[in-house]
Design a protein that fits this description.
By secondary structure, the protein is mainly β. The chain contains one helix and seven strands; from the N terminus they run H-E-E-E-E-E-E-E. The longest helix is centred in the N-terminal third of the chain and has 4 residues.
């Protein structure tokens, strides 16, 4: 394996989540105010179900159906919709 900036452990540190917040689903959860970057890189699913979320650049949310407990959705998420708006998964943690 080549050694250099792209393959060094230090360069990969930026990809490892360094902050987390519990997602509250009583209303649509705005991730833009939770992290300095304005989005979450991952959504970790605690209890299985559907996740309705919007990513940067999307004009409407998408439904990620049947997400298993312990699964991780990767992307640049800005909103997770409430249980009243279609999210059935629970115990979600957003990480950046």
């Amino acid at each position: 394996m080549p050694v250099g900036p792209k393959n060094s452990p230090e360069s990969n540190q930026a990809l490892i989540p360094s902050a987390a917040v519990d997602v509250t689903l009583t209303s649509d959860f705005d991730l833009t105010t939770q992290f300095a970057a304005g989005y979450a890189r991952e959504l970790v699913i605690g209890t299985a179900g559907h996740v309705v979320a919007t990513m940067i650049g999307d004009s409407a949310p998408h439904t990620y159906k049947n997400q298993a407990s312990g699964s991780v959705l990767s992307g640049k998420f800005v909103t997770v919709k409430s249980t009243g708006n279609g999210t059935t998964a629970a115990d979600i943690v957003a990480r950046f």
